[in-house]
Structure formats: structure tokens, C-alpha cells
Amino acid sequence: MRAAVRYLAERASAAELSAEARGVLESEPAALGGGSALTVLNGFAAEPPPVPVISPSCGKGWATPVTGAQFLSAVARDAIELFGGGRVQGGGV
């Protein structure tokens, strides 16, 4: 999954990503410093997510096309839910 996210991130157009997200992707991993994983995760989560839709048969999905930035936003939001669990509180980090 990590490779798939990286692949999409590298190919997302500059117009799809915020300046902060582009800067993180263009940085060398060693140059990101302490706390960078949270910065990256929060930056992608801040991007607009895919638009949810429901089909006539009550199935759920995303409106197409889904951009790379939207996909990364959804993955980052899921990661926050997964790793933050019940500890995520309002009000910032």
C-alpha cells in the first residue's frame, strides 16, 4: 500500500496538491526531520477528500474521477482514524 500511495503522490499534478504537500513530496526523506511523518499525514488529510456517492442499490463509492490528491486525502484520514483511535480529540495537535 505504501508503494501505491507513493506512486500516486509522485504522479499527482502540481495543481491537485497544496504547496505544503508538493514541498513534502519533493523533499528528500532524510531532510524531513523530526515530526515529519505527522506533518505529511496531516497535510494530506487537509486536502479535499473524494466525494462519496450512493448507488441505486444502496452501495457506496466515490464520484469519479478521483484525483491523486483526493485519494491521498482519504488514505491519510483513514490512517488518522486507525492510529489515533479513540484518542483523537478536537482542538489540534
Estimated share of beta-strand residues:
5-15%
Helix/strand order, N-terminal first? HHHEEH
Class computed from helices, strands and strand pairing? mainly alpha
- Number of β-strand runs: 2
Largest sheet data: 2 strands, antiparallel
Which residues form runs of ≥5 with pLDDT under 50? 30-34
Q: Distance N terminus to C terminus? A: 26 Å
Oligomer class: single chain
- Spatially, the strands of the biggest sheet line up as 1-2
Give average pLDDT, whole number: 73
What is the total domain count? 1
Question: What do you see in this structure?
Answer:
Mean pLDDT is 73; it is low at 30-34. The chain has helices at 2-11, 19-26, 36-45, 68-84, and strands at 52-54, 60-62. Strands 1-2 form a two-stranded antiparallel sheet. It is mainly alpha-helical.
